[in-house]
Specification:
Strand 1 and strand 2 form a beta hairpin. About 0% of the residues lie in helices and about 35% in strands. By secondary structure, the chain is an all-beta fold.
């Protein structure tokens, strides 16, 4: 999780190792105190698929309360997951920005259904967010800060986002 600058300790800065080829699949994670699934430093071949995650982030520790998270130095493919009820984002991607997130169901996220931020993504592909179903997120269904990469966000269903009434219609240039 400390891909860019390492972790500063009293004995010096410790740099993480790369964990390419990670596959996390067919797990059932219920009531984890922090993130249910978190990938960090997976530059190539990270797959998170066919998992069930429920009541994630139960301890509600800031920045540690998401359902599935791709952290700094990570990019990958995330699909076929069922994520229901938690304190943070259903899926949080703050890795390289080169992520393909598709065919997931996210219900009752405590913040955004998905949060996307392209950290360390110079020269990489953007977010491809397709065919996801997001129901009752506390705020936005998808919040995208990936403005330095090309993104494709298409064919997602977002039902009853908590922030719906805070936006004005029709939208303006602002």
């Amino acid at each position: 999780s400390f891909y860019e600058k390492g972790l500063k300790l009293s004995c010096g800065t410790r740099l993480p190792h790369i964990v390419d080829g990670v596959k996390i699949y067919s797990n059932k994670v219920i009531n984890p105190g922090w993130e249910a699934i978190q990938i960090g430093c997976a530059l190539n071949g990270a797959y998170v698929y066919n998992n069930t995650v429920e009541n994630y982030g139960a301890k509600n520790v800031v920045y540690q309360n998401n359902g599935i998270q791709f952290s700094e130095g990570s990019k990958g493919i995330c699909y076929g997951n069922y994520i229901n009820g938690g304190k943070g984002h259903g899926i949080n991607v703050v890795g390289h920005g080169d992520a393909f997130i598709h065919n997931n169901v996210i219900k009752n996220a405590g913040m955004y259904g998905m949060f996307l931020d392209e950290r360390l993504s110079v020269g990489l592909g953007g977010f491809r967010i397709m065919n996801n179903t997001i129901i009752n997120p506390k705020s936005d269904g998808i919040r995208n800060y990936g403005d330095k990469v090309t993104n494709v966000i298409v064919n997602n269903i977002i039902v009853n986002p908590g922030s719906y009434s805070t936006y004005t219609y029709p939208r303006t240039g602002n």
